[in-house]
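Sanity check

After download, print the first record. It should look like this:
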Amino acid sequence: MSRIRIWILFLAASCCACAAPVRDAPAPSESEPSHTIFLVSHGWHAGIVLRRTDLPDSIWPVPEDFPDAQYLEVGWGDKDYYQTPDSHMGIILKAGLLPTASVLHIVGFNGTVPAYFPFSEIIKIELSSAGFEHLSRTIGESFARDEAGNTMSLGPGLYGNSRFYLSKEVYHLFNTCNVWTARMLHASGLPIIPASTITVESLMSQARKFGMVVQAGPEPSE
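Expected structure tokens:
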């Protein structure tokens, strides 16, 4: 596919997304508890952190795989690239140019979120019960399942107490890891435009408008 055709498709997708209405997140009322989530930047993509006990098993399928964890971080990306820490150029090009299979990366941990990710920018976001349920359900729908309805674990993850799970979604140029994360946030009602979050900085920039930065990221090198 020529570079011109790629840009035409990108602009078309962006226009469609910008034309779609962006819902406002239902604000937590004083009479109901709010749910706190965190958006954590890893430099090239971002993860969503949720409290494990906030996640009902009927909506999100894997909290029981991390019974002692206080928090769960979820990320999503290309199946081969995400599982290959030292990816070669062939894997990188395939992930960027071709529709490919994808995985979810789940990390269970304890302690505060800034303590676990001391070198990452972290944004704290408050959701209503309805917004949190929409977010949880949309993430849960990304998991691939076998004929018995079970999630499909692919083995240990990249760091800490983590695992990879097969996703039923397709990774491609217009559904990158950052676009997926923005889609999950948008499902909760947050005012974010997924098509304009190709890079992690564009994702974090939008999130700063409705969330609170609780930890700044590293200063860019000169």
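If your output differs, re-run the checksum step. Summary of this record's structure: Confidence is low (pLDDT under 50) at residues 1-25, 87-96.
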